[in-house]
Fold this sequence. Notes:
Chain B: Residues 504-532 are annotated as: Disordered. The complex is a heterodimer. By secondary structure, chain A is mainly α. Chain A is built from 14 helices and four strands. Chain A has a two-stranded antiparallel ribbon with strand order 1-4. Chain A has a two-stranded antiparallel sheet with strand order 2-3. Chain B folds into four domains: 1-91 and 173-249, P-loop containing nucleotide triphosphate hydrolases (Rossmann fold), CATH 3.40.50; 96-169, no CATH class; 269-341 and 426-434 and 444-518, P-loop containing nucleotide triphosphate hydrolases (Rossmann fold, 3-Layer(aba) Sandwich), CATH 3.40.50.300; 352-425, no CATH class. Chain B has 17 helices and 22 strands.
Amino acid sequence: MTTTTAPARGFVPDLRRLLHAREAGVFAALVLLFLLGVVLSPGFASSDNLLSVGQQISQIGIMAVGATFVIVNGEIDLSVGSVYALSAICTGMAISDGLAWPLAALIGLAVGSLAGLLNGLAVVLLGVPSFIVTLGTLSVYRGVALLISDGAPISLNNGMPGVAEFSLLGQGRLFGVVPMQFVIFAVVAAIGVVLLSRSRLGFNSYAVGGNQEAARLVGINVKRVKLSAFVLSGFTAALAGVLGLSFLSYVQGVTGSGLELTVISAVIIGGAALFGGSGTVWGTVIGVTFIGLLQNILNIKGISSFWQTVVTGLVIVAAVAADTWQRRRKTRA
Amino acid sequence: MTTVAAAGPHTGPAVRIAGLGRNFGPVRALHDVSFDVPAGEVTALLGENGAGKSTLLKILAGLQPPSAGTVTVFGEEVTSHDPATVLARHGVAIVPQELSLLQDRTVAENVLSGVEPGGRWFPSRRAMLRRTRELLAELDLDLDPAASVGSLDLATQQLIVVARSVARGCRVLILDEPTAMLTPAEAERLFVLMDRLKSQGVTMLYVSHRMPEVFRLADHIQVLRDGTHVAGWGREETSPDRAVAAMVGRDLAEVTARAGHQGAPEGPPALVVRDLSGRRHRGISFAVRPGEILGVAGLPDSGRVELLHNIFGGDRGTGGEVEVLGSPYERRDPIASVGRRLAFVPGERRAQGLLTTMSVGRNVGALTTRVFSRFGLVRRRAFDRNAADQAKKLRVKTASLDQPITNLSGGNQQKAVLARWLSINPGVLILDEPTRGVDVGAKAEIYEELFALADRGLAILCSSSDLPELLAVTDRIAVLSEGRLVATVETATATEESIMTLATGATPASAPADADGEHRSAGPTAPEGTAP
């Protein structure tokens, strides 16, 4: 046996592998975009601007971390925008009713996780494709959010007990510099990286998404793995919703409509395949950052938001086309 | 049947199969199959397509429950039919025909998938690499545990699937046609591994169509035919000829012989294939004249199906020429084939032949929407009338043309697909498995229709895994083995045994030299030096 001892994979080899992996292309594109931003506008690279980009991508980023688990499993969660609103409304109503804010936030997170669990149960037990299940719950959860809030917006004002502290989550800055939301995103992303690349759940997710039949053959509990992914996705959507409420002190039933598309776009741009079995949280973070920087540059240059929508769409298709092309070349070789 | 006393603590067979049956609706895939798989030895399972081998293996691996009978592993009856339990409790693992690895993950991650060493929540990568390295050393496989599986060739991936089973402590390993996709040299690596496993006391049950291989590896041979167990021997008690005879020995009277066929066909060939290569076939040359039916025989992995798809244009080939009705046909694709009056009835009827959500009429008329349209709109009445005519001509039995095609029997579905092609007035007709899943009555009608078409001057190329069918229907038979044309024989002088012998490479000396090319003639039996 002549195999040389491979180095144990610590953090640094992971980074190195990142550069060789499918994310490398997106990462290169991100660097190019950054340089483009620097060239196009002097204010772009200022720490103020970059910190505000960090703030803007945080909620999408948090949701995308959860969505990555679902997509690696070969499933999809279209309901995250609705879960975002539902959780924010539950938390907002609880605070308005005078509940302590940590408890109110926990209620929001629990509601979101439960929503994810229900998605997962429908997929796993009824055997309905997740696209259909979550297309349905996209509407159901949105409807429930509108129902319990009676269609009326919920505003938090500083007169209510605990609101000042709660607002720090979304509006505060760590050491007065780094937006709190971004800190939370970084923590969630770090946990996501470890969970997906190191934990049994992560290993099993790749197995299930890569080849469900084979996963079953080797004795992996496919249903439990998928359920976990949906719960994670619900949880991260809820966390983003709670942060959104904290940031704006305001939420209504229609808040967060269409977020699911941005979230899925970020994951796909980050290199995950919709068929499952591939993708990393690292890639997703790059994808989210890419979308954030792109919009920021377009904003700075005063390009209309209508064009921003067009450009974002083109980027998604281009990213997947590049990936497909790369794969085809690889299989031909 | 011989049962050899087993080695190891448990005396008796590793697996005892008793009265096993499996029905799919009215279809009997397995009936009252009983035999023993002796412990610590290699048993080969033989049988033609549809003999029930795959069903039997799936039941053993827990992928399907039996309809009747029992499976006992090392003295303990298998009661819970799911793969995880069968593996964990009884130590039975299967290496499926389709490779089931995660291409983007490493060797170690694949081998230990689901059983990673380490803590409850977090597996340890270091321990995974170590465990995999030990395991690979034990199996004498020189592989880097950290290599990505996608970068490895097919044969190596197969070895990893075996290693994955061993990592789960399997004591009985089932291999479903493990060499079907491998070249002889690649297969050799698998055989070395199998020998190694045998020396470690692992019991193996494997399926193969290749006689030389079976007689080299297997200690025991069991034969299934039409879902029943027809023979079992120790290796020394039988011969390749006898094994082949047991596999094919079926009542030949059930198929109609080609009657009313007048003499040798004349005129220039309607279909010429010259040195054609593509996926899993290379250097194939033959010609079919108008009025002639040329059969194509070969094992499932012989490249037979790929050859047909290459000619028709469903798959891109890599070289060679095709001539249809006197003119060269380059840049082949299905749409162009329709224009050149080249018809193709594919073998996977459900996946490739039927428009499964549509009616019988729409299926039959599928190729005529252009002919029967005006200003871009289909003239429904003319379209329907033509579909009705064609369906009637081929005796498609259906309550109405508006019936969903899936309501029809297999035979009538097949007639509908054939009827579809006849409305383009084809000059060359290619068929793959023309009567797969078709009952005897419809079979005879399809044969009669083929004869009538040939008599009208069509050149027909008919590929089938059903040898009695080829012998009954064709004028000549081209035999493929491992992607090469090994012989073209006159049907009148051929027998099932002679064709099977050519197709399995059982006696390579008899393969005529003229059909064989110069490349890669390693010879299917040449054991490349490594026999331990």
